[in-house]
Write a structure and sequence with these properties.
With about 100 residues, the protein is mainly β. It is about 0% helix and about 60% strand. It has one domain.
């Protein structure tokens, strides 16, 4: 998980991670998850969350909470839908944890 915090400390930008997820029909796919188009607000309790409402990642979500050292822990849940070589795939993961360290 890679992400940046805005210079004013009030938002998360440049979110990017890659995960291997199970798909139907039976397959596995490497799915890249990014958030573009503006900052995700950081709440007063140092948490943030984002749920995809459009695109091939509809229903995917990222939730995290920063500690006072600037590290972040959270969960990522992926739902992806795409076509490849004439086959339609629906892929998903259970929510799983992540940890990112400041400057890591």
């Amino acid at each position: 998980m890679c992400l940046d915090v805005t210079s004013d400390g009030h938002g998360v930008t440049n979110v990017k991670t890659e995960s291997i997820v199970d798909c139907q029909p039976e397959a596995q796919a490497e799915v890249t998850v990014t958030v573009t188009g503006g900052a995700i607000p950081i709440q007063s309790d140092l948490s943030f969350s984002y749920t995809y409402t459009n695109s091939a990642l509809q229903g995917s979500s990222i939730k995290g909470t920063f500690d006072t050292a600037g590290d972040v822990t959270g969960t990522l849940e992926i739902h992806a839908s795409f076509d490849d070589n004439g086959t339609h795939y629906d892929c998903s993961s259970v929510a799983y944890g992540f940890h990112a360290k400041l400057g890591g």
